[in-house]
Amino acid sequence: MNERVVTVGIGEYAEAVSPDILAVYGLGSCVALVLNEPVLGWAGLAHILLPGPRASSDRDFKLPAKYADGALEVLLLSLEQKGGNASRLEAGIVGGARLFHSDTPLDNSIGERNVSGVVKCLRAKGVPVVWMDIGGTIGRSLRYHPGEGILLVRTLREEGWQEVARLDAPSNPAEAGPEPGQNS
Question: What is the percent of the chain with per-residue pLDDT over 70, rounded to a whole number?
């Protein structure tokens, strides 16, 4: 099988099934939200810039995952369209660091506010957060392998990828459902 790495930029989201890998590179105060639906073998990843909600003056709809609430909504819609069940979702959160010091408290807490915004949205939808790698003062990159349920994180101060979580993966390939683009 050939794996494909799907890189998710700021304000974007993507979804994948095994053997594909979801990735975000260079997280600072941004938050990566990973949703995993283990029976379907589906995963979604959003690269969230701000806690939200979207201001009425923000008309940049080209970035559907810019805000925490919008990111969760597009991922849930995508899951629903694939035939997944939101009651089986598990969530992971990575990022929310404070990379720079500022004299303004609001500027210092954007990473923390991003994490809080994502957690608040997940709680409102009843999606459990089963792992986090958040905060601190260093940036992170992540790779998520939906088929194995493995989350790898690399920081600017560590060499190589470190496994930080293992979510439920499908127990057999037949449970994973159809390949993307195929009907069930």
Answer: 79
